[in-house]
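hey can u check if this looks right to u? its 169 residues, i copy pasted from the old doc so theres a chance i mangled smth
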Amino acid sequence: MVDVYSNHYDIFNMLSGKLSDIIKRHEGLSLITYRCPAGSRTIGYGHNLDANPLHRIDRYIDHYLAATGKITQDMGEWILDQDILHAGIAAEQITPIWYALNYARRAVVISMIFNLGVQGYTKFQCMRAALNNAMYQEAADEMRDSDWYYQVGPRAEELAQMMETGEWI
């Protein structure tokens, strides 16, 4: 699998440590499936099983979950790494100024895609327009002026601050 993503190694390598810590703090870990607030079957660190069935990522983990009704912490970590990588690849593809963004702002975009999915993230048209014009304060303000901001609470404010300042929290 590393060969498939070799062009995106920097996304995984440079962001996965700090970004995975942020996502772990926001999502928490569940070794058994549960329904997220949106009603999707979820496991690990917020992995949406309905949108991304495990058999598409790793058949062994899929079979293990089916046989035992749970996953291990190591499996949850591996799934999270894959989810960050996939969200990072999507972020790079849909963000025209991706390479002009510092790593904290890239992490914001990836975290939002992780949380909302690509379709949900693309609905933030005003925020994305501000971001693509390097208007980071306006992008942060647009994040704060959304239903998502009030639905996810402190997570959204943390990401808005990172967008605004360009600094890791």
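The mean pLDDT is 92.
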